[in-house]
């Protein structure tokens, strides 16, 4: 068996010299294939590059007919080269022509060659092309030769990534790496954002590929692995949740993979072949990601995701960079792209420079989606592999209404979306004209429209939208973005500033709603089998009364001399409300003893999220000043669906008969008890769902600022009595799983109601 003269390290050094030579792209590529053929003792070496139209084109060859360069093309999946491109796996054959996928290209003159070895050119798991060597004899390529060619392929992939070969591709297609990409995801927050990619966890772009000293690189690799292991161990020993929101089970998985001998062996072998430590990690990471993209088993995909995340941490350790982008370096018109992130991480960036958000994970009812809507930030979730499809600084467009993302859009696509953004701005201007128009339906039913908020940055929207107040102020956001527990004084300052910003408009403050998926980074995490059903919200407040009392005291002090509304989240029984009410009374007495001014009026309510309260409606409406439906959690618990789980989150419709019947019970009992009933969940901000709520008898809705205009335009054209009669009639005959959405949509269409 022939051996490569000088081995892979000599080849890599020679390739580095060629990469530095002041020659044109085609000359450089021609020299590279000559060098590879000589080193691999091959009679043929060819490079096929994936074009933007998905076609593989022969860009350079040593051994085949040179006239075939830029003329021989094939589709992914066609022939042996196409097979390698579609599978992203190397292929070694002693007799290529006997393989069923062999496709003969007469212009190349390859019929005299039998032995064939091809490897994909991978970058971030994406196939950029194929590198092939061939021999006339029926020879078997050794594992070491396959490994050497894969290492060489990584260097070629980086050459393609520089864009130098772009000029060699057809103008109308370009090369695949830089081609425009259209991705469909799930709409999270309305709006159109045009800008440039900022990766929440920026990939390390490995520039130094070829090792000067293999032993030194092995030591660097081992040191970085040790640091990553130690950091994971420290997080687990502390028992809390890291700043980026990794839960304990994720960290346990990371720790397991950080000790996986197969993964570590492949990286060490890549270094031994002549790569730097970071290039070796990138090489193995790219192979894993390519397998992940072609994996249909969700469990295996998730495990490969874990390896990808771990490799990303390792790369950042090796180059000494932070895992997340520095907030101060955020450019204008930034579109944030991430695999996943928590609401606190998003809030950390600030709103002024952000134009959109794109996530690989996160559904429309996730908390990150709720915060994006609160910030008025166009957002799309569940966009497959988006973090691997983009590069830092790429042009990108987010269409939050259609759930679409345009990566590196062509000029005509960009112009079309710019026009769409202008049209949307004009529509917003039309909504702005409705700001001072009373929110009254055609048949004279007044409907109060309020905002959901959580930060001071939200409150200027009161003036912009004409909202009558804040129906839900999420106090936990202050806790989630802080590095430590906010003091009572800091809490009071926030609430005082919120009152000042709201002027004479009322604010309903929800007490701290943490737990479940909202764990504070500085609090001890509690390991639970079902955190959404566990120790959270009012349960934490009642078990740790000092925490709840401090917040109540801050609210009472901030509201001195003006009306105050407080509501408690996740109340499951009347007794929990009585206990919370007793804590409020205790704090009022404390203020009296110390001479503080009381609020001019105090109203206490509950968020109706737990289905058990549906069977205590009469009792709770008799003792609470108001009830506010948290439709997201109520629906989650009513149907036993995890709203963060993509497989089931969209399985049940909020306009289904069971949900509407539950909401109808609330509206009817609240009216009978003369207890104000509001809806502060997400459905109140969607015009069609809001139409149904008004028909059921809810005359107070709270929503994101961007939803005020569309909902007001809807209700001004609505006859509440008519839609109410339709819903009652349909619910009498609806089956258990029926949805009223089609009938309500037809009603809106025939009555000219904009939804």
From TrEMBL:
Q: Into which EC class is this enzyme placed? A: transferase
Give the protein's cofactors. Answer: Mg(2+)
The cross-references to Gene3D superfamilies, in alphabetical order and at most eight, read: 3.30.450.40, Phosphoenolpyruvate-binding domains, Phosphohistidine domain, PtsI, HPr-binding domain
Q: Which residues cross the membrane?
A: none
Subcellular localization is given as: Cytoplasm
Reaction(s) the record says it catalyses:
L-histidyl-[protein] + phosphoenolpyruvate = N(pros)-phospho-L-histidyl-[protein] + pyruvate
Q: Which regions form coiled coils?
A: 211-238
Q: List the EC numbers from the record.
A: 2.7.3.9
Is Kinase among this UniProt entry's keywords? Answer: yes
**Which residues does the UniProt record annotate as the domain GAF?**
24-170
Query: Would you indicate the residue range of the signal peptide?
Result: none
User: For this UniProt entry, what is the primary localization, expressed as one broad class?
Assistant: cytoplasm
Q: Which PROSITE patterns match?
A: PEP_ENZYMES_2
Q: Does the keyword Metal-binding apply?
A: yes
Q: Which domain of life is it from?
A: Bacteria
Q: Which InterPro entries does the UniProt record give?
A: GAF, GAF-like_dom_sf, PEP-util_enz_mobile_dom, PEP-utilizing_PTS_enzyme, PEP_util_C, PEP_util_CS, Phosphohistidine_dom_sf, PTS_EI-like
Q: Which GO terms describe its molecular function?
A: phosphoenolpyruvate-protein phosphotransferase activity
The text of the family note is: Belongs to the PEP-utilizing enzyme family.
Recorded hits in NCBIfam families, A to Z, give: PTS_I_fam (TIGR01417)
Q: What is this protein called?
A: phosphoenolpyruvate--protein phosphotransferase
């Amino acid at each position: 068996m022939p051996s490569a003269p000088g081995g892979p390290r000599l080849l890599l050094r020679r390739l580095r010299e060629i990469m530095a030579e002041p020659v044109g792209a085609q000359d450089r590529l021609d020299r590279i294939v000559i060098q590879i053929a000589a080193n691999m003792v091959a009679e043929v070496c060819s490079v096929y590059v994936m074009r933007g139209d998905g076609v593989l084109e022969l860009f350079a060859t040593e051994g085949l007919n040179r006239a075939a360069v830029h003329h021989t093309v094939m589709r992914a999946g066609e022939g042996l080269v196409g097979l390698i491109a579609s599978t992203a796996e190397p292929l070694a054959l002693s007799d290529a022509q006997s393989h069923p996928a062999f496709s003969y290209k007469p212009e190349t003159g390859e019929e005299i060659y039998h032995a064939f070895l091809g490897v994909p050119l991978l970058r971030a798991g994406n196939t950029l092309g194929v590198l092939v060597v061939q021999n006339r004899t029926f020879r078997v390529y050794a594992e070491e030769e396959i490994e050497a060619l894969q290492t060489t392929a990584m260097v070629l992939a980086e050459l393609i990534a520089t864009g130098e070969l772009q000029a060699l591709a057809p103008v109308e297609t370009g090369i695949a790496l830089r081609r425009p990409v259209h991705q469909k995801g799930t709409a999270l927050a309305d709006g159109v954002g045009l800008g440039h990619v900022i990766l929440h966890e920026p990939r390390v772009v490995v520039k130094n590929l070829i090792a000067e000293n293999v032993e030194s690189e092995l030591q660097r690799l081992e040191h970085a692995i040790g640091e990553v292991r130690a950091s994971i161990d420290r997080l687990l020993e502390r028992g809390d949740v890291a700043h980026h929101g990794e839960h304990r089970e994720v960290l346990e998985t990371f720790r397991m993979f950080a000790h996986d001998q197969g993964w570590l062996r492949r990286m060490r072998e890549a270094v031994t072949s002549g790569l730097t430590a970071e290039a070796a990690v990138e090489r193995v990471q790219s192979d894993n990601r390519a397998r992940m993209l072609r994996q249909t088993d969700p469990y295996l995909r998730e495990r490969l995701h874990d390896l990808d995340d771990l490799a990303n941490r390792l790369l950042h350790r090796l180059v000494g960079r932070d895992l997340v982008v520095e907030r101060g370096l955020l450019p204008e018109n930034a579109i944030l792209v991430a695999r996943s992130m928590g609401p606190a991480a998003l809030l950390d960036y600030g709103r002024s420079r952000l134009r959109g958000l794109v996530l690989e994970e996160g559904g429309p009812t996730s908390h990150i989606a709720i915060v994006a809507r609160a910030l008025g930030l166009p957002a799309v979730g569940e966009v497959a592999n988006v973090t691997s499809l983009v590069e830092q600084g790429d042009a990108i467009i987010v269409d939050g209404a259609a759930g679409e993302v345009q990566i590196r859009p062509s000029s005509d696509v960009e112009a079309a979306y710019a026009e769409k953004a202008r049209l949307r701005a004009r529509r917003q201007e039309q909504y702005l004209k409705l700001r001072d128009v009373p929110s009254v339906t055609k048949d004279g039913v007044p409907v109060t429209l309020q905002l959901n908020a959580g930060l001071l940055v939200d409150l200027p929207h009161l003036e912009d939208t004409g909202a009558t107040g804040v129906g839900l102020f999420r106090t936990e956001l202050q806790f989630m973005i802080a590095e430590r527990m906010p003091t009572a004084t800091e809490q009071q300052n926030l609430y005082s500033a919120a009152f000042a910003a709201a002027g004479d408009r009322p604010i309903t403050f929800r007490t701290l709603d943490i737990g479940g998926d909202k764990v504070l980074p500085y609090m001890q995490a509690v390991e639970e089998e079902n955190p959404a059903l566990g120790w959270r919200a009012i349960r934490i407040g009642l078990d740790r009364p000092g925490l709840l009392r401090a917040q109540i005291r801050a609210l009472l002090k901030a509201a001195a001399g003006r009306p105050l509304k407080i509501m408690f989240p996740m109340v499951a029984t009347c007794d929990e409300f009585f206990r919370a009410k007793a804590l409020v009374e205790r704090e009022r007495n404390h203020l009296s003893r110390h001479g503080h001014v009381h609020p001019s009026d105090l109203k206490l309510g509950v968020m109706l999220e737990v289905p058990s309260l549906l069977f205590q409606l009469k009792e709770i409406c008799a003792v609470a000043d108001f009830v506010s439906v948290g439709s997201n959690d109520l629906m989650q618990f009513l149907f036993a669906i995890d709203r963060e789980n993509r497989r089931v989150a969209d399985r049940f419709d909020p306009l289904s008969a069971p949900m509407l019947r539950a909401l109808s019970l609330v509206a009817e009992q609240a009216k009978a008890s003369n207890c104000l009933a509001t809806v502060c969940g997400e459905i109140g901000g969607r015009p069609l769902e809001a139409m149904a709520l008004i028909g059921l008898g809810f005359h107070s809705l709270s929503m994101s600022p961007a939803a005020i205009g569309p909902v007001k335009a809807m209700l001004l054209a609505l006859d509440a009595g008519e839609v109410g009669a339709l819903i009652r009639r349909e619910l009498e005959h609806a089956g258990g799983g029926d949805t009223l959405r089609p009938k309500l949509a037809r009603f809106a269409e025939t009555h000219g109601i904009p939804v």
